[in-house]
């Protein structure tokens, strides 16, 4: 009996090791998948869907070519996974603001609505100009604008959510129903943020800046919010 008791810990230890091994494989698999998405984001953003190859992506991710098939099934599925990653990453940072300004209280009055739109645009400035990942997101999104395919639908779904929220707020501020002019005004408000991301090289050269840091971002935000009020000033005749 004593001998049997002495053997039990060894049996339990073996079982524990057996349970741990699948978890380790799962962790390695998740890490490889994340590395492939990161590499694909960079390469799709620089070369576009047609220009990028799965071999290039696998090499950049330090993974086997077969790993793309294993984790995603195809180049197209990987491309869609990257689009979902970009949308989710941006939404994770902007989502809380979108939620807070989507309440009835946030648009109860024109003054409250204006403050809500200031909050959304300010958050967009901080996310798109203050995140180290934003440059890679922007390159991918710009590529999708130039050569839209199924991945663009994923990106558009996220963008539409932010645009619809901003558009509703604009109608409250201007006390007017939605129409083409209101849509254009809203797109102009949001577009002024994007130019500092997608045309950043031009901005840096013209402003004689070496980078957009906290001080530069604060200056940009101040001007953009002033422009926001000017764009939405007054009501339509």
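-> sequence recovered:
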């Amino acid at each position: 009996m004593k001998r049997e008791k002495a053997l039990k810990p060894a049996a339990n230890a073996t079982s524990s090791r057996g349970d741990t091994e699948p978890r380790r494989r799962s962790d390695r698999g998740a890490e490889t998948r994340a590395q492939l998405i990161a590499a694909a984001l960079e390469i799709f953003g620089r070369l576009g869907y047609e220009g990028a190859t799965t071999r290039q992506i696998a090499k950049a991710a330090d993974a086997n070519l077969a790993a793309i098939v294993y984790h995603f099934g195809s180049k197209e599925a990987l491309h869609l996974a990257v689009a979902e990653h970009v949308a989710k990453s941006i939404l994770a940072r902007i989502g809380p603001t979108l939620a807070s300004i989507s309440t009835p209280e946030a648009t109860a009055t024109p003054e409250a609505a204006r403050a809500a739109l200031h909050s959304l645009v300010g958050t967009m400035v901080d996310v798109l100009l203050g995140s180290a990942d934003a440059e890679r997101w922007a390159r991918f999104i710009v590529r999708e604008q130039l050569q839209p395919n199924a991945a663009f639908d994923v990106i558009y779904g996220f963008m539409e959510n932010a645009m619809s929220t901003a558009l509703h707020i604009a109608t409250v501020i201007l006390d007017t129903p939605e129409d083409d002019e209101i849509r254009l005004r809203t797109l102009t408000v949001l577009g002024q943020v994007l130019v500092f991301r997608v045309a950043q090289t031009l901005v840096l050269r013209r402003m004689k800046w070496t980078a957009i840091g906290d001080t530069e971002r604060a200056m940009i935000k101040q001007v953009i919010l002033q422009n926001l009020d000017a764009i939405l000033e007054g009501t339509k005749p």
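The chain has two domains: 2-71, 80-231.
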